[in-house]
Amino acid sequence: MIVRIFLLITTIFATSIANASDLKEALSYAYLNNPILQSAREDLKNAAEGTSGALDGFMPNIKWDRSAARAKSTGAGTQPGSRAYTNTMTVTQELFRGGASLASLKAQKKAFDAQVQNLIISEQDFMTKAINAYVSALQTKEALDINNNNVEVYKQTLASVEEQFKYGQLTLTDVATAKANLAQVKADQIKANGDYINAKATYKVYFGQEADNLAIPELPNNANTTLESLIEEAKVNNPALLARRAAVEYNANNIWATTASNISPILNLNASGSKTNSKTASPNGAGIGGNYQPNRSSSKQVTLDLTIPIYQGGGEYSNIRKSKIAYQKSQFDAASAMDAAVQTAISAWQGLETYDESLKSYQEQVEAATTALSGTKQEFEVGIKTLVDLLKAEQDLFKSKLGLSTAKYNKLNAAFAIYAAAGKLTAKGLELPVEYFDPSKYYLRAWNVLPNVVTSN
């Protein structure tokens, strides 16, 4: 069954293989320049920065303070004035907090992983809409061409009716009927033109270019060959499912982090050193004939601080319970996402098979309608068929051509929906000739917690 489906697809699109790169070129341009994707990438960069915050518990806190003081006394029996400058360096390093820092770092990694999958979701959603816009521009243009041709057919029919009316072979009613039908197909033509204009406007939203000289694209190369293989791939690669799984692991680590942060003992190492340079005025004063006597002093101190929470009002246990509830909820969400991934795969596969059958049906219908119209024309010329019969035959062929066009492009969208269900409707999955956005670059950059590391990319 599946071999027959893809053989039929290949036949349908064989005439466009020479221009198959057009869609890839359009998607490549959109991938690099569309603000929707650029915004989603900025969200991921922001999520990556959470890693720097999670590393706080492993890094020392270093502070330097400088103070200056001046004292001056007046009056009999007072002490001389003085000046003092003190520099103090303090270092605090957390040594133990129940593993809270490690748990927070692991949780942040899973939060980043989830955001990577969210970016893929955004990319797949964009690619789906962009491809639909591309296909819609093609389909509405073809529909307009079919309508334009239909108008010409009805004009010829009207001319033929008017000619026969001159010789008394048809009545004025026949002429009026032909004119009414021509007016109707012109109205259809106007609507088709409006649909094409709207499709081109939508195309420009996604691609930033005019929808000119578009070619029917080639189908994805790596389509699954069975529904079962598609379902298995969806279970492994569906980004919505992977995001939910990452959320489960995030919440598992968050229970640990929340518990340790709220009720675990805390052991800190503190080290400080200070140096003071002071000058005290001699009894003669600091003025003419007087002087300042210098004095230097320094101190160093190292301490271990152990803090054991005993009672904090009970709010800490509420926080722990909340983290456990969040974990349980994420498990249910992951199970639901699994069902949704399988359902999406089945729906995409069924859509492809449905449009295959629809396409075959319309092909047969066009062939039959073409034959019927040819025979009706001949019978109309010899008076066996009426004008109404002829107009109906023309309308049947017109509708079958539109149906064939719609089914053809629906099948194209359905083929890309298979890719989306498998989690491969991305620039990399479609093998677009561009430099792919690399999330790991920004995650690794966030590990650099040294000062003065500022980049804009």
UniProtKB/TrEMBL annotation:
It is found in: Cell outer membrane. Residues 1-20 form the signal peptide. Belongs to the outer membrane factor (OMF) (TC 1.B.17) family. Gene3D superfamilies: Outer membrane efflux proteins (OEP). InterPro entries: OMP_efflux, T1SS_OMP_TolC, TolC-like. Residues 352-379 form a coiled coil. Keywords: Cell outer membrane, Coiled coil, Membrane, Signal, Transmembrane, Transmembrane beta strand, Transport. GO terms for cellular component: cell outer membrane; efflux pump complex. Residues 275-297 are annotated as: Disordered. It comes from the Bacteria. It comes from Candidatus Arcanibacter lacustris. The lineage of its organism: Bacteria, Pseudomonadati, Pseudomonadota, Alphaproteobacteria, Rickettsiales. One of its GO terms (molecular function) is efflux transmembrane transporter activity. This is Outer membrane efflux protein BepC.
